[in-house]
Amino acid sequence: MTSSVTRAKKGGGIGETLRTIVYAVLIAVVMRTFLFEPFSIPSGSMLPTLLVGDYLFVSKFSHGYSRYSFPWGLPLFEGRILEGEVDRGDVAVFKLPTDNRTDYIKRIVGLPGDEIQVREGRLYINGEVVPREKVGEGMVSGLTGFPVKITEYVETLPNGVQHRIWERSDSEPLDNTPVYSVPEGHYFAMGDNRDSSQDSRVQGQVGFVPYENLIGRAEIIFFSHNGSAQFWEVWKWPSSIRFDRIFNEIR
User: Fold this and answer.
1) What is the tens place of the pLDDT at every residue in 43-57?
2) Facing residues of 223 across strands?
């Protein structure tokens, strides 16, 4: 009698553990699909706003839901449901329009119907130059590893949203563009590191971002490290973690 009771308890323990795991997985899938999804920053195209090694949460509900809100982009429906407004200045994660698989993160500067142009490094929206104010300059590591000089500005979009941008100069390859007319149902996205960003200015690689491709709005940094420590180098963790960036809101 005693042994049979013991076996029942063991069986019940295993069953309870399995149920707990299943519930945990379901909760994680629901959270990731409908509320918040984690993303990491692999490149410097959004410097100085986002650093390589930042980990952030993206709100899935801010812009509503499309097929790309779901794992693997399952084609459960067309368009978007529970549509949310996209504001100029939002830092948004989206599926790259030219392949619908790769995740990109950029700042939305152009809305449907806008005319966007860059002239001599200055952003123009509907024919009006976007104000910018110089706040500093310095040397940073470039793509080749050699130091390059950058100038930092605070840019103020027409709706009052302010954010920082970097410019190497005002005569780089993407500092003079044609006028882009943003189609209905699409958005124009640019990186804050203006001279080191492949974005909507590169029509053949990125182009206009369809509303359906938006995954969500970047909200908060929940972890950040500078890459100086390997996972197994526990003793280096304290010096590699950027504690001052954790829980910073993304603007």
Assistant:
1) 999 999 999 999 999
2) 55
